[in-house]
Amino acid sequence: MIDFCGIELAHPVVNGSGTFDALAARRAFGDALLEDFPFAAFVSKTVTLEPRQGNPPPRLWELPAGLLNSIGLPNKGLRRYLAEDLPELADLPVPLIVNVMGASPDEVGRLVAAFAERDEVAALELNVSCPNVKTGLLMGADPGETAALLDEVRHLTSKPLIVKLTPNCASPAVVAAAAEAHGADAVSLINTLRGMAMDPRRPGRPWLGGGTGGVSGPAVRAVALAQVREVRSRVAIPIVGMGGVQSARHASDLLEAGADIVGVGTESFRDPMAGRRVADELARLATRGPAARRGDLEPSARIAQNG
Ligand code: DHB
Question: What average pLDDT does the segment 136-147 reach?
Answer without folding.
Answer: 93
